[in-house]
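Board notes (copied after class):
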Amino acid sequence: MKSTIRTTLLVLSIILIISELVYGIPFFGGSIILSLGWQPLLISMLLYFIMMVILIVDKQNAIKPMMFIPLLGVVGNIIAFIPVVGMVVHWILFLLMVFFVFILLSTPLYVPNKNAKVIYTEDRRNK
């Protein structure tokens, strides 16, 4: 994983962690979501979708199996339109995003090496 992609995913993850934390607070999060006409759920869905696209497109990605967390985020925000169920969904998504950030921080970075040589046959090794 390249450092720019990792940084982008970390920023999006921190934004989503904060939003899931706020939306999961009983009555307070629900009042924010209902007063804004469920737009915070659509914005969160969009951010999860952007994360999913980044994980799909990245070629040197060591955490492709973690793509299920943004996918669950999109599905969870669709389910979160139901008021009481939404609170529990936001708690679950908060815990999953914290887990995602820990995995993201432990992922090795891809560092290109300009001086590396690839030897395919033994004939080229002797030259």
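Comment from the instructor: The chain has one domain: 3-125. The two ends are 34 Å apart (CA to CA).
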